[in-house]
């Protein structure tokens, strides 16, 4: 049988048929035994004794395992702690600051921020849909976890129902390192939309000092006046610092 004519626009057919499947990739390089053994020992110690049995650098090293499976992460864990000072400060450090360090890429940042997000979710679950005034310390712990290490000011509102159960926690505004704009009318408007009966105001001071400024005091008075006109109660205004908080209610400012 005569062969079919070959088009000039088509590549010539191969002399022998070849598979269309790609060649198998080379197997991944085996993890050096000393790194594998070290990681196994850390996991066993963590599972047997929990986080309390481990110093910060080893706990941080375990977090970094997933970001780089082929490299010893102990030097990087120590470098992060040298730079930021503690496990907590490392996990909550701003992404831009983390990326300034050698060997830190987005994969490592993602692992650190995953731990931060998980911690915030766990703390939030302890207060959401529960009576806030009877679990006040849990609320303070949640606010510290969510806001203490932010590098800019954030203003949040905790909305409560008639039984003082937390029904919503919402950031209302973000600002600069020392200022965040707050509009009392927007605060009470959102409370009415949620059918809330009471509010707790919360904002952070990136400087670490929770002492309220005069603008903080003035703003709180304006929000309280707007809320009172609509029958809403302001239980407190909390200013979150690095390691402690300031309560307007406890200090006679509300």
TrEMBL record:
Ranges for domain MPN: 132-254
Would the keyword Metal-binding be found if you checked this record's keyword annotation?
Answer: yes
Segments spanning the bilayer are: none
The annotated region (Disordered) lies at 1-31
Q: Which UniProt keywords apply?
A: Hydrolase, Metal-binding, Metalloprotease, Protease, Zinc
Stretches assigned to coiled coil: none
Report the InterPro entries cross-referenced here: MPN, RadC_JAB, RuvA_2-like, UPF0758, UPF0758_CS
Output the Pfam families linked to this UniProt entry: RadC
Q: Which GO terms describe its biological process?
A: proteolysis
Q: Which domain of life is it from?
A: Bacteria
Q: Per its record, what are the GO molecular function terms? A: metal ion binding; metallopeptidase activity
Q: Does the keyword Zinc apply?
A: yes
- What family does this chain come from, according to its entry? Belongs to the UPF0758 family.
Question: What protein name applies here?
Answer: DNA repair protein RadC
Organism name? Pseudooceanicola nitratireducens
Upper classification of the source organism reads: Bacteria, Pseudomonadati, Pseudomonadota, Alphaproteobacteria, Rhodobacterales
